């Protein structure tokens, strides 16, 4: 039995989420018992995800886009923009990837996901003990690498945070890459936020 099979399914919302057929064209996630639906992303968002994927070597890493994540002890099934797993780790089939095998998760902030990406997802990924969480933020033109997860549940967080501006090299030590962000676009006509 895998970690995904062992995940407690005691809440009705998890069962509902897994059985409901959502409309096509929407990204749907379960975040601490709340179902979140979002429209498709901006082209700049997809270009950034593609640029990150291109810089992480396929020979060593699986680079999975829009992969649902199974997190033990959470009523959550997030779908990060990019999941990075060591080649050979994790299941080859199925909808859910166990968080225990993940090396790094990447979220590219959209115009409507700022609070989720910097808030609840940061806590969920830290609670899942995901070693590294990279937030690429085209609103503010910055990358935030979070490492060393600590704590449990809603109080979980990352101890270390490194902020770099677009155009600067962003060291991603967990995957042995120096990320070139010089071609990352920023969103136009979007109000700045207060994060990280």
Q: How would you describe this protein?
A:
With 196 residues, the protein is of the alpha+beta class. The chain has four helices and twelve strands; from the N terminus they run ααββαβββββαβββββ. It has helices at residues 3-6, 12-19, 43-55, 114-127, and strands at 26-31, 34-39, 61-64, 68-70, 82-86, 96-98, 102-108, 132-137, 142-150, 157-165, 169-172, 177-180. A six-stranded mixed β-sheet has the order 3-5-7-8-9-10. The chain has a two-stranded antiparallel ribbon with strand order 1-2. A hairpin with a 4-residue loop joins strand 8 (132-137) and strand 9 (142-150). The longest helix is centred in the middle third of the chain and has 14 residues, at 114-127. The N and C termini lie far apart (38 Å).
Number of strands: 12
Gross morphology: globular
Average pLDDT, to the nearest integer?
89
* Strand arrangement, major sheet: 3-5-7-8-9-10
What is the CA-CA span between the terminal residues? 38 Å
Hey, roughly how much beta strand do the residues contain?
Answer: 25-35%
Low-pLDDT parts are 1-10
Helix content: 10-25%
Largest sheet: 6 strands, mixed
- Global Rg: 16 Å
């Amino acid at each position: 039995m895998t970690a995904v099979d062992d995940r407690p399914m005691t809440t009705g919302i998890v069962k509902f989420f897994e059985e409901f057929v959502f409309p096509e064209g929407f990204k749907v996630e379960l975040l601490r018992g709340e179902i979140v639906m979002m429209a498709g992303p901006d082209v700049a968002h997809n270009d950034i995800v593609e640029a990150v994927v291109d810089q992480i070597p396929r020979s060593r890493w699986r680079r999975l886009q829009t992969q649902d994540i199974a997190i033990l002890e959470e009523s959550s099934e997030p779908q990060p923009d990019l999941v990075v797993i060591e080649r050979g780790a994790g299941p080859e089939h199925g909808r859910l990837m166990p968080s225990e095998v993940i090396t790094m998760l990447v979220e590219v902030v959209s115009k409507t996901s700022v609070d989720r990406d910097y808030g609840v997802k940061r806590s969920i990924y830290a609670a899942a003990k995901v070693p590294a969480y990279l937030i690429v933020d085209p609103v503010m033109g910055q990358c935030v690498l979070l490492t060393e997860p600590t704590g449990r549940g809603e109080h979980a967080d990352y101890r270390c945070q490194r902020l770099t501006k677009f155009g600067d090299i962003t060291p991603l030590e967990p995957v042995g890459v120096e990320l070139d962000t010089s071609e990352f676009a920023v969103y136009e006509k979007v109000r700045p936020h207060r994060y990280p």
